[in-house]
């Protein structure tokens, strides 16, 4: 089953699934501007991250009450994780959609390169998510985490 070009989630997650693009305006409207503030906080999980992704990681953790946010991991290839310019925000369902939509709404300020969520790929300038091929698992298909990659450099904190 597909909705707005996205493959529907596994049956276990379907009862609460809403296409990510549906929640964008609602997500922004439900957060007071004072909630959007970025600070660089050195936390154990930020080791290896560039300063800007680390600041965004801290903002997302504080705003959404999340503690499981990974970033740097060694390696090579196309991933931005090995350069310290990517986050994996471990969250599922509606909470993950809320995080992904907040990131999309502030992509310019946050210097976002792209977002992967629920087997969909989005980058600034796209109207919605582009469906991705099945990579074989919930984690590889990004059903259990939001991936955010950043361009080099820094951005500006939303609503600062």
From TrEMBL:
It comes from the Bacteria. Pfam families: VldE (PF26571). Residues 51-143 form the ARB-07466-like C-terminal domain. InterPro entries: ARB_07466-like_C. This is ARB-07466-like C-terminal domain-containing protein. It comes from Mobilicoccus pelagius NBRC 104925.
């Amino acid at each position: 089953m597909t909705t707005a070009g996205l493959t529907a989630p596994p049956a276990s997650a379907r009862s609460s699934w809403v296409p990510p693009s549906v929640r964008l305006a609602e997500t922004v409207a439900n957060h007071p501007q004072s909630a959007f503030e970025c600070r660089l906080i050195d936390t154990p999980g930020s080791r290896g991250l560039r300063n800007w992704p680390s600041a965004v990681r801290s903002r997302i953790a504080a705003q959404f009450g999340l503690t499981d946010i990974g970033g740097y991991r060694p390696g090579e290839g196309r991933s931005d994780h090995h350069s310290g310019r990517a986050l994996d925000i471990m969250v599922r369902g509606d909470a993950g959609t809320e995080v992904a939509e907040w990131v999309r709404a502030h992509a310019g300020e946050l210097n976002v390169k792209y977002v992967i969520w629920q087997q969909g790929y989005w980058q600034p300038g796209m109207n919605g998510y582009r469906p991705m091929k099945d990579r074989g698992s919930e984690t590889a298909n990004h059903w259990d985490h939001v991936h955010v990659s950043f361009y080099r450099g820094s951005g500006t904190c939303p609503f600062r």
